[in-house]
Amino acid sequence: MDEIFADGKFSHSRQVGCLEMALARYTGARHVIGVNSGTDALVLLLKACGLRPGDRVLVPAYSFVATASSVVLAGGRPVFTDIDPDTYAMHPDRIADAAADGARFMLPVHLFSRMADMTALSAYAADRGITLLEDSAEGIGMRQHGVHAGLHGRGGVLSFFPSKTLGALGDAGAVLTDDADLADHVAALRHHGRTGRTLAHFPGIANESRHIGHNSKMDDLQAAVLLAKLTVLDEDIRHRAVLARRYDEGLRGVPGITRLPAVTDAPDEVFYVYLIETDRRDELAAHLQDRGIGTETYYPRPLHLQPCFAETGHRPGDFPVAEAASRRALALPLYADLTEAEVDRVCAAVRAFHAGRVPA
Ligand SMILES: *Cc1c(COP(=O)(O)O)cnc(C)c1O
């Protein structure tokens, strides 16, 4: 940040390029393009992949709203599917044939601490000639069969929203891809469509705009912050996993909790969020709030029931797994500075609630 202030270069400084290289090393992506949010990363990725107006894009009914709104912003039509109850993600077994019919893209999401089954989804997409992309906004550090989230199809995204595992001091995001042409296209779209090429009839003038572009560049100060935080990311991830195991021990067998996140012993497990399910979710959240413990409900309204997607014509009951998760899921505190003693305090408060020592 000092360097940016000293140079007075508040845009087009070195920071974004340095971060892109560091993220490429971290994720194994050939190309990383820094943009101003995870949402814009999705919009630009979809456009650069050749999404045409009205194209159908398969998306899960359970996700952050930007998964499906980015499809609309890019000119496409979201087609909702139910989720797999184990991963909370899109799965071929839950995609109705009628939904897949005519779909050109699919955009599975990796939520909380699990990745979608990318082997099954890749095979499904390949069979039907569907382009596979990933909303890996929550997926930094997550790998399946050694491949980082976002690199199982043509491209994926990262979000650096402050609450994410790698969070900036504001908004930022990135596109990940191994495809050089796609990377060039996204890089042009983030900056007014500029390709950086010189025009034949105006030699030396490098500001050809070949596409109608956005202004979605990553903020240079955020890039500087992220470069610094990336150096401690693996440490943060390990600490989160320790806390997740502690939650598991503290909450196992508590009657009323219908699901824990199934922590394994895998050394590289990444917890963006520690999510439990309980039938009395809202009462538990209020109980914890009264004791100074913040929680979050991810995601209280499934996407097919959001007013902004009313055109899709869905009703309650259409995607029962997504709807059940929306009613029952609660994220307990999990962040890099949280201590094991604080996790114990949260567990004690959750246990007290379910033991009925607290008026229902
Ligand atoms: C955070 C998030 C986004 C959007 O990222 P922003 O950087 O907030 O725009 C998209 N999809 C999912 C699943 C997310 O969690």
From TrEMBL:
This protein's name: DegT/DnrJ/EryC1/StrS family aminotransferase
Family, similarity comment: Belongs to the DegT/DnrJ/EryC1 family.
Spans through the membrane: none
Upper classification of the organism: Bacteria, Bacillati, Actinomycetota, Actinomycetes, Kitasatosporales
Molecular-function annotations in GO: transaminase activity
CDD domains linked to this entry: AHBA_syn (cd00616)
Keywords, alphabetical: Aminotransferase, Pyridoxal phosphate, Transferase
Organism for this UniProt entry: Streptomyces omiyaensis
Pfam families assigned to the protein according to its UniProt record, in alphabetical order: DegT_DnrJ_EryC1
Keyword set includes Cytoplasm: no
Domain of life: Bacteria
